[in-house]
């Protein structure tokens, strides 16, 4: 199927509203505004969490972050939803997006620590326009954890993935509300069965089983895990950029979640120089062909999960030792996190892939060493 909305030249990225989610880090808000300046969005909706009560330093930091918004120096409409007190990351983002989608029917969404390549705004606007009437598509995302994925369907400009990504993304009002209404309640003991009925790639299914069990036992999933799980369980997909267009600057002691640099150890220092990877063919083909409904790229989802689990490993040596004894009576969460070590040759392949485009040699050396001599059942079966 082809769409007559087929060239980026027909679309003006500045017409797409941008939601900026901020809190108390003024340096990141300043960088986010600098990221927007080349595009000059005509409508900006700012969602800000409030300061922690009885914390004067946090109160001042929030005020300084909000003051940066007033430095926007191009003609545009700015709307603000500023919380008086601290709601916390998940509650503030969800309530903020509810507010934003009460005002606009589509938006690109950037948290304050997101550094987006200018091409992101054009690509994402094009995808929002092309897939607006497709109920099977929940979101578009400019963050590609594998840095590049040239094996896309011809002229599609996107990867259909059942694993969303909220570092530089976009969606529509009707989809935001539809996904929020998807029920994931049920008995925790039935989580594996319920996930299996969705026919995910097995490693992704194991990850979602963990999410679903957690949600059913203690419903405190982070908003992004909750959103992605509901999206996937509803049968919807995310359209991922074939080339990484996003970098997260927010790793560090003052981050809400990503305090450890290893969380992003395999991401490029900055979005790629797009000319290096046939940008026009991958991101802006002359004629855009929409991805068939009901398709997903299982190879991409598997590679992504293996890499994500790998970089979350805090004790690679222990993981390696446990992987040598796969028949131990381990709990399901431990088994999940052993997957990169149980399939170490496959994981090494993707490390080499990423190393060829983005990652420093010391990082690659660290993970190659961590995976060395792991037990690989698939290798044993092939002998």
Rounded Rg? 21 Å
**Helix amount, in percent?**
40-55%
- Neighbour order of strands in the largest sheet: 3-2-1-4-8-6-9-7
Q: How would you characterize the largest beta sheet?
A: 8 strands, mixed
N-end to C-end Cα span: 44 Å
Broad structural category:
alpha/beta
One letter per element, helices H and strands E, the order comes to: EHEHEHEEHEEEHHHHEEHHHHHHHH
Individual helix count: 16
User: What average pLDDT do the residues reach?
Assistant: 86
Low-confidence stretches: 1-10, 252-266, 268-272, 379-383
Question: Strand portion, in percent?
Answer: 5-15%
Name the shape in a single word: globular
What is the count of β-strands?
10
Overview of the structural elements:
By secondary structure, the protein is α/β, with parallel strands linked by helices. The protein contains 16 helices and 10 strands. The protein has helices at 26-36, 56-69, 89-101, 118-130, 173-180, 191-196, 202-217, 223-233, 279-283, 298-311, 316-323, 332-337, 339-342, 344-355, 361-371, 377-382, and strands at 18-22, 43-48, 77-82, 106-111, 114-116, 137-141, 159-161, 169-172, 237-240, 246-248. The protein has an 8-stranded mixed beta sheet, with helices on both faces. Strand 2, helix 2 (56-69) and strand 3 form a beta-alpha-beta unit. The model is unreliable at 1-10, 252-266, 268-272 and 379-383 (pLDDT under 50).
């Amino acid at each position: 199927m082809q769409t007559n909305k087929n060239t980026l030249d027909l679309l003006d990225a500045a017409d797409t509203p941008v939601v900026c989610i901020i809190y108390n880090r003024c340096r990141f808000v300043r960088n986010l505004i600098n990221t927007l300046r080349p595009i000059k969005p005509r409508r900006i909706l700012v969602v800000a969490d409030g300061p922690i009560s009885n914390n004067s330093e946090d109160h001042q930091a929030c005020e300084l972050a909000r003051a940066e918004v007033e430095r926007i120096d191009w003609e545009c409409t700015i709307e603000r939803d500023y919380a008086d007190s601290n709601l916390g990351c998940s509650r503030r983002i969800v309530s903020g997006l509810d507010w934003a989608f009460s005002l606009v029917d589509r938006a690109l969404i950037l948290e304050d620590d997101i550094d987006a390549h200018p091409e992101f705004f054009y690509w994402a606007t094009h995808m929002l326009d092309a897939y607006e009437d497709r109920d099977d598509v929940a979101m578009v995302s400019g963050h590609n954890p594998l840095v590049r994925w040239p094996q896309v369907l011809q002229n599609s400009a996107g990867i259909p993935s059942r694993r969303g990504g909220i570092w530089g993304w976009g969606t529509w009002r009707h989809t935001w509300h539809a996904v929020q209404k998807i029920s994931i309640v049920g008995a925790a003991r039935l989580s594996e069965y319920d996930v299996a009925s969705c026919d995910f790639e097995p490693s992704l299914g194991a990850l979602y089983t963990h999410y679903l069990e957690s949600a059913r036992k203690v419903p405190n999933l982070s908003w992004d895990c909750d959103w992605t799980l509901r999206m996937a369980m509803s049968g919807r997909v995310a359209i991922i950029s074939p080339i990484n267009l996003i970098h997260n600057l927010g790793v560090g002691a003052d981050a809400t979640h990503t305090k450890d640099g290893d969380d992003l150890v395999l991401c490029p220092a900055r979005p790629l120089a797009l000319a290096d990877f046939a940008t026009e063919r991958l991101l802006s083909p002359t004629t855009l062909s929409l991805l068939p409904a009901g398709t997903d790229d299982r190879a991409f989802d598997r590679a992504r999960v293996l890499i994500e689990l790998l970089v979350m490993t805090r004790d690679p040596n222990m993981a390696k030792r446990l992987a040598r004894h796969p028949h131990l009576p381990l709990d399901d969460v431990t088994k999940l996190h052993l997957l990169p070590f149980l399939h170490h040759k496959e994981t090494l392949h993707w490390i080499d892939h990423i190393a060829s485009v983005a990652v420093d040699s010391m990082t690659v050396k660290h993970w190659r060493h961590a995976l060395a001599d792991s037990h690989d059942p698939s290798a044993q079966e092939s002998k």
